[in-house]
C-alpha cells in the first residue's frame, strides 16, 4: 500500500507545524540573553542619569524609555513605569510593580529575573542619589550573572527544543500512517 500525495502533504504539514512550535520555544532562549543585556544597560543609564546628571527618578525613567530602542520589550517596562509615575499620588514601587505586571509577559525574561526587578522596585526611590546608584549597580551585577546563565541555557536547550519539535512531528506522522 503506497503513500498518496495527500498523505505526503499532510505529513509535511505536521512536521513543519511541530518544528515551528519547537522553534517558538527555542526563540525564548535566544531572546533572553539579549533582553538581560539590554536591561542591564538601561539600568546603568538610569544610574548615570540619577548620580551624574542629578535628574529626578521620574524624569530619568522617561528619558531612558524615550531613547531606548522602540521594539524593545524591556524598554516598555521602564517607559511605562515612568508614565505611571506621572499619576498624582502613586509611589515609585506601585508604578514599578504595575509596569512589571502589565509588560513583563511580553518579555522573554524568567520569573527569577522578575524577582530581581521587583526587589529593585521596592527599594528604588527611597534614598539619595548615591544609594540609588548603588542599588542599581547591584541589580545590574545580578542581571549580568543571569545573562551568563541565560547564554548557557540557550546553548544547552535551544537546539533541544528545535530537535524535539521535528521528532514529535515525525512520531505523529509515523503513528498516523
What does this structure look like?
There is one protein chain. The protein has 177 residues and is mostly helical. The protein has one domain. The protein is built from six helices and no strands. The longest helix is centred in the last third of the chain and has 48 residues. The protein is elongated.
Secondary-structure topology with pairs:
Layout: H1 5-51, H2 57-67, H3 73-85, H4 92-103, H5 111-123, H6 129-176
Helix pairs in contact: 1-2, 1-6, 2-3, 3-4, 4-5, 5-6
Distinctive features:
177 residues; 6 helices; 81% helix
Low-confidence segments:
none
Label the structural class. mainly alpha
Whole-number count of domains: 1
Question: C-alpha Rg, in Å?
Answer: 22 Å
Number of helices in the DSSP assignment: 6
The whole-number mean of residue pLDDT values reads: 86
> How is the biggest beta sheet arranged?
none
Distance between the termini: 11 Å
Give the total of beta strands. 0
Shape: elongated
Helix proportion: over 70%
Task: Tell me briefly what this model is.
The protein has 177 residues and is an all-alpha fold.
